[in-house]
Structures are given as structure tokens and as C-alpha cells.
Amino acid sequence: MNVSNIKNSQVSPSEGFREAFTLHLADNALIMGHRNSEWCGHGPILEQDIAISNIALDLIGQSRNFYQYAAQLFNQSTNQPINLATEDSLAYLRDVRDFKNCLLVEQPNADWAQSILKQFFFSTYQYYLYQQLQNNKDEQLKAIAAKALKEVTYHVRWSSEWVIRLGDGTEESKKRSLKALDELWMFTGELFEPAFYETTMNIDFVLLKEGWTKKIRSVFEEATIDIPVENKWHQTGGKIGDHTEHLGFILAEMQFLQRAYPNSEW
Amino acid sequence: MILLRKFYYGDYGESKLGSSSDNETSSSPSGAGGEWPLWEVFIRSKQGLDHKHAGSLHAVDAAMAIENARDVYTRRMEGVSIWVVESKHIHASNPDDAGALYDPANDKAYRHPTFYNLPDAVKHM
Questions:
Q1: Separation of alpha carbons B15 and B71, rounded Å
Q2: B34 falls in which pLDDT band (50, 70, 90)?
Q3: Do B71 and A50 touch (CB under 8 A)?
Q4: Residue B9: its pLDDT value, please?
Q5: Which value does ipTM take for this structure?
Q6: Which string of b and e fits A106-138 if b means at least 16 CB within 10 Å?
Q7: Residue A51 and residue B58: Cβ atoms within 8 Å?
Q8: How far apart are the first and last CA of chain B?
Q9: Is there a contact between A47 and B30 if contact means CB atoms under 8 Å apart?
Q10: Could you tell me which chain B residue has the CA closest to the CA of A162?
């Protein structure tokens, strides 16, 4: 599934670990937000259409904060005042291999069950990650995480209630929930496998995985879904730019306007 | 064949179904093509003292109704507190009775306390 294993420096010369990590956080939020935005106008019911669009906006808002900070870091570390990085240039003018989001967030929405489960896995991960970031030494990351945590807390609540509702629902909803689990589980391992740029950011990945697994377990129990056994193998590569084929399509749609009409404004 | 029927606030005539009791049948979320029950949403704004009617929405239960209300009616900082109540529990006056109910108040201006001269000493009135 992964395009290739060539992973020679996806980090441009001026891109230090902090920049790469900030971009990783931004890309995660942007791509997940974009996937959610695809539901806009297609939700199963008006109220849930609005709910998932709200979450899309929350995530895109988070990504803006991270991109703005990343741009600031880039511009500080470079001496060329011509190509100044901006939040827009980072979101719209980087190519697939430069994106550092986890593979999980770029997976297709498929049906409601799969979108919900993806949201639940991701939001729970964000929740425990941001809790740690709240105490990070980097003041900016700390502040963004603290602000976003309130939103993420709601995303976890909303998505876990849906996981329970569908898992412990009808025969059909159960079937779809299990299919979604089958499709997505292999992408969850990557969340807890630190990329090189994460190793210096003071994140306790063991603690992160522990919190995540515990939450998943308790919600699955209520949803009467068996949690898969610890995976021996999982998909990986997104964090360092080796993506599934889906990301290219997302970027093609998302970046088209800025690339076809550079600097056009809303 | 079950006749599906939506109850909007202000609708008159639900008593014909005799559904003032909490029967589960009409609020069951399942059933082929069944609509989710309708809920009325009341929001208290930051400054407001009382909850005001904001609108209505569909949800399978009270928990979902509150979450939907949060997403639909408070996304522009409209509120700090939410009440929801299933629409079928709201009873409305019959529009046909409007004449008898409200018109008699039309010519009773003396019910407004505008004919009194307030002494200057009275403040905060």
C-alpha cells in the first residue's frame, strides 16, 4: 500500500525537529479536518451533518494554529526573506511526500461507521497527546494544545457515543462497525511509533498508548466490540512522508485552486 | 402500516392521538424509515436569566438531543445552558380559539400601568 520505502531526508535543510513535529501536528489536523469536510451536505441527518462539519472546522482551526507557528519557525531559521513561509503556503504548496500526517487520517470516509471509528481513534489519540503537550517546554505548542483540548474532549465524547450506538445497535450497524474496525485497525499502530522528529519532543509514547488503549477498550466494551489482539504488524510511513495512495487525491482537490491560480483570495 | 406523524411546536391536535402519556412506540428510533423524534431546544444566553426557545431538531434520545443542540444552536456562542424537551410533550393552544383567548385583552388598556403618575421620589421603576 505504501508508495515506496525510499525515505531519504524528507526534511528540508532548514527544517529542524521542532518544525517537522509542528508540521506533523498541523498535517494530522488538516487532513482529518478535510476528510470530515467531505461529509458536509452528505451527513445521514441534518443535525449530524452539522456536527461533523463543526468538527471539521475545529480541526482546520487547530491546523491553522500549528501552521502559523511552523511558518514562524521556518522564517526565523532562514535568511532569505523572499519565499516567506505562511500558513497557506505550508498547507497548499507542499507536495505529498512533504506531508507528515499519520496514515489513519487520510483513509477514505467509506460509510458513517468507518468515519466515526476513524474519528474516535484519532480524537482519543489527540486527547492524550495534547494532554502531554500541555506540559511541553515549547510555550506555543503548549498553548495551542491547551486551547484545542476542549474541542478534542468533545470530539471524543461525540465519536465514542456513536461507536457505542452503532456497535451495540442493529445487526447492520454492528456488521458495518466490525468492517470498519477491520479496515482501520492496521493504521492505529503508527500513532505510537515515534518518528525521528518526535524523539526529542518529550512525549512519553508508552503512556500515550496506555491511555489510548484503555479508552478504546472501555468504549468497545460498551459497544460490545472485541478489541483486536495487539498487532504484530501495522502500516506505517505517513509520519515521514510515505503515504497511501489516498493522500494524493486529497491534496489534488484541496490544493488545486492555489496551484492553478496562485495567491487567489477568497 | 404505521402512520408517521411529526409534531411541530405550536401544532394543535396531538391530543387526537391521545399521546400525552410517555408511550415508547412513538419515540422509537428504529423501524424502517422511522423518523427520529423531534425535540424543542431552549438556550440560556450568557446574559439571559431564562432559557429561550431556540428551535427544534431530531435526535434519538435526550443525550443526543443536547449534543445536537450544542452543535446546531450554540456554535456562535449563543448559550451557556441547554434544555431539551420532546416536542410531543408540549401542548399548544388552538389557533381557532385565538379570538376568544386573546382578543378580549385588546380594549383593556387600563391593565397597563401607564396611567399612574409616579412621585419623583420613587426610583427604579
A1: 32
A2: low
A3: yes
A4: 53
A5: 0.71
A6: bbebeebbbbbbbbbbbbbbbbbbbbbbbebeb
A7: no
A8: 60
A9: no
A10: B64
**pLDDT greater than 90 at residue A15:** no
Question: What is the distance between the alpha carbons of residues A242 and A190, in angstroms, rounded to a whole number?
Answer: 12
A182-185: long-range contacts at Cβ-Cβ below 8 A with a sequence spacing of 24 or more? Answer: A183/A107, A183/A110, A183/A114, A184/A104, A184/A107, A184/A114, A184/A117, A184/A118, A184/A121, A185/A228, A185/A231
Write down the residue that cell numbers 504488524 correspond to: A233
- Which chain A residues are closer than 8 Å to B67 by Cβ? 51, 157-158, 161
Least confident stretch, A234-238, B8-12, B39-43, B113-117 = B8-12
Yes or no: say if A67 and A26 are a contact pair by the CB < 8 Å rule: yes
How does pLDDT run across B61-79, given as a tens digit for each residue?
A: 999 999 999 999 998 888 8
Beta-bridge mates of residue B52: B43
Does the domain at A17-260 match CATH 3.30.460.80? Answer given as no
3-state secondary structure of B39: strand
Q: Closest Cα of chain A to B59: distance in Å?
A: 8
